[in-house]
Write a structure and sequence with these properties.
The complex is a heterodimer of chains A (456) and B (234).
Chain A lengths: L1 H13 L2 H36 L15 H8 L1 E4 L19 E4 L4 E2 L10 H5 L5 H17 L4 H6 L1 H6 L5 H30 L5 H30 L4 H30 L5 H29 L7 H44 L4 H13 L3 H27 L6 H6 L10 H30 L5
Antiparallel strand pairs in A: 1-2, 2-3
Chain B lengths: L1 E10 L2 E11 L4 E5 L6 H8 L7 E6 L2 E2 L4 H6 L1 E4 L11 H11 L7 H10 L4 H4 L8 H15 L3 E5 L7 H16 L3 E5 L3 H7 L2 E6 L2 E7 L5 H13 L1
Parallel strand pairs in B: 3-8, 3-9, 6-7, 7-8
Antiparallel strand pairs in B: 1-2, 1-4, 4-5, 9-10
The chains are: A mainly alpha (456), B alpha/beta (234).
Chain lengths: 456, 234
């Protein structure tokens, strides 16, 4: 019976001009976002390739000077985060966090290389990518095809004709729900596969992430379909349903996240990148000036390098290192304060996200795509570990004012990014996906229960 | 058989149907007359299980509708005042959908078109979108559904309202054909003439109660009108 109802509903619904328009808009938006995302992904990969082969230590190319200080601090090394596994689908935090660090023996140069520093929701809400289409447009289109599940047919009397046959209302409604779910879910799920094929990404982690993405999209959609079901079961007219659903969309997709943004910004205001850079400069200026004064004094005392000798060079290197350390310490405190504030924002965002399925799903999709804060934090953690390794390798040589041998130069550490693996991602998305699933089940259950009292 | 057994329906303190009983045998056409709000449609809704009786039973083929909604609907067909089908589908597609929904054995296009021709629609009309149909043509599709389904009971709620005399007459003839085939028919109507012409029995409802039940063979048109008006003025 359900098959008959589904086939019939599919036939009736897809012949409707408005529904055809909805599907066209959805598929067009998904395709546009996918193509833009793939183009962005290809560009990022090309850039990463250029960076990773442009004379970095261990990858060919030798600096003009092998002086330890010059290699360790002036040349340094580059810690580069590879493009996200599903970066084509979601920009996420990519424009908040830096995807590279200039590594020197002195510091991990993070704060001043970040492109923009804002809290996540503000940034994510302005992007056009597949995640945006799924999170913001998809619910609206679900409502556009679902606001008139039974109302018009009830008002015209067709539903009475249908229900005078040996069929239950819940079967009729279930058939209609299935058609609407399939109609929009299929394009939404096909997109990651298309993006993967275009970008020729078929490694196992991609497959797992694509499946996780699909699951998240499916349960997110189920929540919105559930909301539509409950509203339809209320027995109002189709225009009244449309109005109520539009209000719910506005509340949960626009007003809710905006309110959370406002609350986060009020409780934990984040300084802009410019402010942070100014603070960093101000904090380091004093240390830098003091160190430079000492170095200047040294150079006054030793006007030519000829009469300094190796011991003198070591003293100079030590003074330099002390100055650099003071600068790094001051910089670190500013960065730590900034990162603490960012972490507080993230925690609050995570807690308040339960207020809207859109915010819950956003967290999941970005994590699955590899553009959430988690991957960038992991990258920073790895870069910091590499910076310690770099420093440990070079510091004795710098303080010794040594010149590297070609062998020593070749043995210098090289940064290789080790992704955290999909296990960690799985662990993080489990709870939010379970939350959305339970919410969807409750909504569908409540919707069908409410339909039991539907007045014909 | 269409049987009302001490059927009652109340909405709050309002008794919409008040202890109504009848038994409509196969081949019998029972026409239910009454003013608006007399309880005719509420009664039909209970036979369709759209609303539940407060007490008593609505039975189709001996089965309590409230207890066996799906089984009774297999035996039942319903034609409302406006047969509202799917306007984007053709008459044939609509008929196919409803007969499949009814789990009827008739399924091929040839059989379905034959049935549509029986009720007065040509094969060409059958393939046209129902959105282009007149009310009379849609009512005919309703009858076609009843035939294709092989229903033993037919409920009609003011089916000739708004039909021109010719279409109304055609419709009455189709009802007669169905009753000859042994279908038990319950028709709520305001049309005294059609009730006398098509009905084998006429019932008059007032304030939810069945106040009169008359064999039409014993009546002339003027008799029925006088009886009806007498009840309405009481």
């Amino acid at each position: 019976m359900i098959r008959l109802l589904v086939r019939h509903e599919w036939h009736v619904l897809t012949s409707h001009a408005v529904v055809q328009l909805v599907v066209f808009v959805f598929v067009s938006a998904l395709l546009a976002a996918t193509l833009l995302g793939v183009a962005r992904d290809v560009r990022e990969r090309a850039t990463a390739l250029v960076f990773s082969t442009s004379g970095e230590i261990g990858r060919g190319g030798r600096p003009p000077s092998l002086r330890a200080d010059a290699v360790a601090n002036e040349r340094g090394s580059l810690a580069l985060l590879p493009p996200a596994p599903l970066g084509a689908l979601a920009i996420g935090q990519s424009d908040v966090y830096s995807n590279y660090f200039k590594i020197t023996a002195r510091s991990l140069d993070g704060l001043v290389t970040g492109d923009q520093i804002e809290h996540p929701l503000q940034v994510a809400s302005g992007q056009f990518d597949v995640a945006f289409v799924i999170l913001f447009l998809y619910p609206l289109l679900i409502f556009a095809v679902s606001f008139d599940l039974t109302a018009s047919e009830r008002d015209r009397g067709t539903l009475r004709m249908v229900l005078s046959q040996p069929v239950r209302l819940r079967e009729v409604v279930a058939g209609r729900m299935i058609v609407r779910v399939v109609l929009l879910l299929v394009p939404a799920l096909v997109v990651p596969l298309v993006a993967g094929l275009i970008a020729a990404r078929v490694e196992p982690s991609y497959v797992e992430r694509a499946l996780a993405w699909s699951l998240a999209v499916a349960v997110y959609a189920a929540v919105w379909h559930g909301i539509a079901l409950i509203v339809n079961a209320g027995g109002r007219s189709a225009p009244a349903n449309a109005l109520v659903l539009a209000g719910i969309w506005l509340l949960l997709v626009v007003v809710g996240p905006s309110t959370v943004n406002l609350l986060i910004g009020t409780w934990y205001p984040m300084p802009s990148r410019v402010d942070a850079a100014v603070q960093a400069r101000s904090a380091t200026q004093e240390a830098s000036v003091q160190g430079s004064r000492e170095l200047g004094q040294f150079l006054q005392d030793h006007p030519t390098s000829g009469n300094v000798g190796q011991e003198g060079m070591r003293q100079f290197a030590l003074l330099q290192a002390q100055r650099d350390q003071r600068v790094a310490d001051r910089l670190q405190s500013v960065e730590a304060a900034f990162n603490d504030q960012l972490a507080r924002q993230q925690r609050l965002t995570s807690r308040l996200s339960v207020l809207s399925p859109t915010m819950i799903a956003q967290g999941v999709l970005l994590d699955v795509a590899g553009t959430s804060t988690h991957r960038f934090e992991h990258f920073r953690f790895e870069a910091a570990a590499f910076q310690r390794e770099w420093r440990a390798y070079f510091e004795p040589r710098v303080l010794d004012a040594a010149t590297l041998t070609p062998e020593e130069y070749a043995r210098a550490p090289v940064f290789t990014y080790q992704d955290e693996g999909t296990g960690a991602m799985r662990g993080r998305i489990l709870a939010p996906i379970a939350t959305l699933t339970v919410l969807a089940l409750l909504l569908w259950w409540a919707g069908f229960r409410r339909y039991e009292g539907y007045q014909l | 058989m269409i049987e009302a057994a001490d059927l009652c329906k109340s909405f709050g303190s309002n008794k919409a149907v008040d202890h109504v009983s009848w038994l409509i045998q196969p081949g019998e056409v029972f026409c239910l007359l009454g003013a608006n709000g007399a309880g005719k449609t509420t009664t039909i809704n209970m036979f369709l299980n759209f609303i539940q009786p407060t007490s008593g039973e609505a039975r189709i083929g001996g089965l309590n509708v409230a207890a066996h909604p799906v089984e009774t609907k297999k035996k039942l067909s319903y034609i409302p005042e406006m047969v509202t089908l799917y306007p984007t589908l053709s008459g044939l597609e609509n008929l196919r959908f409803f007969t499949r929904l009814a789990q009827a054995s008739v399924d091929s296009d040839v059989e379905l078109i034959t049935i549509l021709e029986q009720v007065g629609l040509t094969a060409d009309q059958a393939r046209r979108r129902v959105g282009e149909y007149s009310k009379g043509m849609r009512q005919k599709v309703g009858i076609a559904i009843t035939i294709a389904k092989g229903a033993s009971a037919l409920l009609l709620d003011e089916p000739t309202s708004g039909l021109d005399p010719k279409a109304s007459n055609d419709f009455s003839e189709l009802l007669t054909t169905l009753s000859v085939r042994g279908v038990a028919i319950l028709m709520a109507t305001h049309d005294l003439f059609r009730a006398k012409e098509s009905g084998t029995r006429v019932g008059i409802m007032k304030h939810g109660r069945l106040v009169e039940s008359i064999d039409t063979k014993r009546l002339g048109h003027s008799d029925l009108e006088q009886i009806y008006l007498r009840h309405m003025h009481d």
